[in-house]
Amino acid sequence: MATSETFQQRTNWLPGNPWFWMLVGLGSSGLALLWTRILATHAAAGRLSLIILGLLTMGIGLVLRINDSCGSFLDDLSPGARRAAFILMQWAGLLLVIAALLLLLASCCNLDIPWRTSIVLFITNLALPAGVWLWWLATFHQKRPSRRFSRNLESGIMLLLAAVIVFLSGWALYVTYETEQEWDTLRHAALLFSLVAYVGGVLTILPQVWRRVGVSLLVLLHFTAILHAVLSAPPAVPWLVQQNWQWFFRPYLEFVFLNNAYQFYAPDPGPSGFMWYRVEYERPNQEKRYRWVKFPEMKDNGQPNYLLALNYQRRVAMTELVARYDNPPLGDNPIYYWRRVNSPDPPSPVLGKKEPQIHLQVPLHPEITLSGQYEPTTRYFRELIASYARHVVRQPHPEVPDAVGKTVQVYRVRHWILPQIMAREGVGPYEPYLYRPYYQGKFDREGKLLDMPEFDNDGHLIRGDPFLYWLLPFEYTNPNSWKESAIRGWVFRHAGDPNWVRYPGRKFWEPEKSGLDSLPKWLKNR
Amino acid sequence: MSDTIPPPTSDPGPGLLGSLRRWGQAWDRFWFTPASPTLLAWIRIGAGLIALYVFIAFTLDFEEFFGVDGWLNLKARLEHVREIPVYAERWDWVQPSDPNATLQANTPWEVQYLEEYKREFGDYPPLPFPESEAEAQYFARYRHRWGIDPRLLLTQGIYAWSLWFHITDPIAMRVIHGVIIVIAFLFTIGFCTRITAVLTWMAQLTYIHRTPIILFGFDTMLLITLMYMMIAPCGSCYAVDRLLRRWWQRNGPRVIHHWRTFWARLGLGEAPNAELPPPVLTPLPPVQPSVSAGFTIRLFQVHLCIIYAAAGLAKLKGASWWTGIAVWGTLANPEFAPMYSEWYMTFLNWLASNRLRLELVLTTGTFFTLFFEICYPFLIWHRSTRWLILCMAVLLHGFIGLFMGLKTFALIMLVMNFVFLPQGTITWLEEQGRKLRLALLWYADGNGGAEGREAGAARPPTEETTRVGHGHLHRRS
Measured between CB atoms, does B285 come within 8 Å of chain A? Predict the structure, then answer.
């Protein structure tokens, strides 16, 4: 607890007075705003420095006030200084009212300010009563010099001042309508933080009982929002919850990233996956090179090849995120027809219809239904895959520095969990049978999809790859004995990799050898 | 915080009003009872160390995750943030594509617009008509891009914000990233905790909002912890702030004296008329319980209960949790379990070789998880079952850390579970820490030297303690 001597020293020592820091903050952010209005985008570093200075000094002022358990700093001033402080506060209140009204007028006149009229109206509705109240409070205390100015009141006013400082700092990031997108997300964040400071100031000023009521309401809102996030996870969402989430709670939950439903390993623990990329490079002499990039990167024994486990887990999260797909189409869709056409057992030609051209005869997976082998990635996640592809194709070739990535074929691979019965038989988790690759498309350097299949009105494939979003299985030539079976990796074949067969007892994938009796007739004849 | 809610201080009275008062008093006692901030300081240290590790780990993949051409390139991410459709159903039964709700075309242009839209998209456009050709093209472009007409939307974009949206120069990004690591370190050691807590939380959000594709459950938990640390007085103890307060109490008047003397020499102030004051040697008062500490602890506790309840109840949607084999999905997932390890595969093969053994282990593990998560919000509050639940938490999260490779997730969950440690245990642990410190000082100082005497230990500490009640300690001198 401070002694009276410490009180005297605290009052007279400027750096120990939070008002000093708050006023420096206000001046700094105001100057930053003025800087922007006058200099626009010139000397942006100066403007940003003023903003950072303003926010830091504001933080110091608030911390000094919160950490001091004694009375208000205003009460420690001399009577003359105290009176001057209250006059200043009166003017501040009036200025706040005038500024709010001017802002509203500017918005109605479509002047160049960074917020819509509805937001400005909201700001005005908050600033007007705050300004009026500040003016009234200062007048009240000015007329009653013997009345103590409570610590809570002082803290509350400082928080309101902090709201103004943050608001001005956000505004100072806006130059003009043409550059509206510069710093836009930080401007919105500043507005929301300003609102938080305002609410904090109001709560601090309230008497204890009402403060606790206010805090209790905020707690209820907070946990209601969290419960809405929990209940909003698909597939079954109550209509009311959905509406509340969309209309009321979404801004808060998204802003502070509390939008998680906490459904870990629900409904069932599922398989993880990989992304396999086959990148096509081109050298200046037109020579083409190819390289497989497997993501996440694993060592030969299956161990992650990363220094920190956390970095590996982040990559796993990236691959799991895009493993979501829409329900396959029902009924008689051209994609099913074209998949059967491109299999070893194509449908019979229809009389009078043009004979379909076979792209590549990839067998269907023997254990999954036809529609189950088609997993069209959801629209949003297709865009993510395009972004991944764009990143991969732009990476330099590790061994040929002058090779430039041109296109990349992307495969989303699901790595099935080893079934118990296979574990009992001593089958390892890296058996190709457990990998299920789905083709996601061929992309260029900009991430544009190049081979989306297009069909005419007759269901005839005009262009594109009919295997887009289809499973490209690993085929065992002898399903009764895996150890004696050659394995055909149709994903590699589809990608154009000549090394697509693994023979019994061999570790690596090789080109197909001729004269293999175990291959079916139709393959031997291709 | 007390292990039990303190009794009411006044009689609320009879009837409905009395009941309401009782509820109000109970609510007030639950949320606003003062508690010691010691626990929050420990959580601060744990969460701070984990946050520091996370930020340092980002350094290895900084360009890949946050660069302009990273895995989620900046252009694509900003398009999502600014334009992604946010659709809300109408509050009545009318569907947007209902022909009765569609507009009446009054001009030839409008008729043509209707027909062209139907040809392009297969259905009629929603209200209203575009005001210009440019607006019509914008609607069509948006629909091609996002699959929905923007006129059907509640709004566009999401409330995401990040420094990395706007600062893209690689050197500037690295410098700011370095500053963030320093801030996380300062938060961990408890320096300017009020400021560094807010900045650490903002930093975590800045990474999350820029690249949400790299996140998993661990990041959500860390963010929750950092968020509550912002309102907690977690720098009151076990913090550099407390050392600074002690230093300032001793030396503050001398510093101010020197400050005034300096400015007086420059002619910018009056010289201090008193001579240099001696250092103030009175000790700092002990850390007092505070309402904000109690409030934060309650927030944490309620949130943790919601997390476990949601996690447990969501699992009931899955068949494998009912059939008792769900745990196999974690034991045999090659991307998480250490299946590259020969001993682990040997263990799995051994487990699977006997069906009864396998089913016993899987079913026990599955129902243990379900029981723990679903019953957590009910049993954690009772003194008699709290330690059981906390031990189960250590077991479950230990398993997750060891056998699923999710060590950081396990750590943050254990740190969060600290919040249910009884006050008696906290006091006991502090006491053990004090004894250890005394003993170390005593032995380091050569058995009873000046430091040992200053610490109050003329001989090795041999205080006897007696356990009284449940978790409460009573010192017997």
Answer: yes
Q: Could you tell me how far CA B20 lies from the centroid of its own chain?
A: 34
pLDDT in tens, B312-345: 999 999 999 999 999 999 999 999 999 888 899 8
Say which DSSP state B157 is in: S
**Alpha-carbon distance B336 to A316, whole Å?**
9
The confidence score (pLDDT) of residue B206 equals 96
**Which residues in chain A (27-86) have CB-CB distances under 8 A to chain B?**
59-60, 62-63, 66-67
Q: Is A5 on the interface with B (CB under 8 A)?
A: yes
Measured CA to CA, the distance from residue B376 to residue B417 in angstroms comes to 11
- Which chain B positions have a beta carbon within 8 Å of A179's beta carbon? none
Q: Which residues of A touch B28 (CB under 8 A)?
A: 212
- Are A509 and A489 a contacting pair, CB within 8 Å? yes
User: What is the Cα–Cα distance from B160 to B206, expressed in whole angstroms?
Assistant: 9
Contacts of A250 in chain B (CB under 8 A): 86, 159
- Cα–Cα distance for residue pair B341/B338, rounded to 1 Å: 6
pLDDT tens digit sequence for A139-189:
998 888 888 888 889 999 999 999 999 999 999 999 888 888 889 999 999
Model confidence, pTM:
0.89
End-to-end CA distance of chain A: 92
Distance, CA of A493 to CA of A478 (rounded, Å):
19
Tell me the angle at which helices B342-353 and B355-379 cross, rounded to the nearest 10 degrees. 100
Contact state of A272 with B336 under an 8 Å Cβ cutoff: yes
% of chain B beyond a pLDDT of 90: 56
Distances (CA, A) of A141 to A88, A145, A148, B126, B200: 12, 6, 8, 59, 39
Give the pLDDT band of residue B273 (cuts 50, 70, 90): low
Q: How far is CA B375 from CA B72, B245, B363, B368, B372, in A?
A: 39, 43, 17, 10, 5
Rounded CA gap, A415 and A272, in Å?
Answer: 6
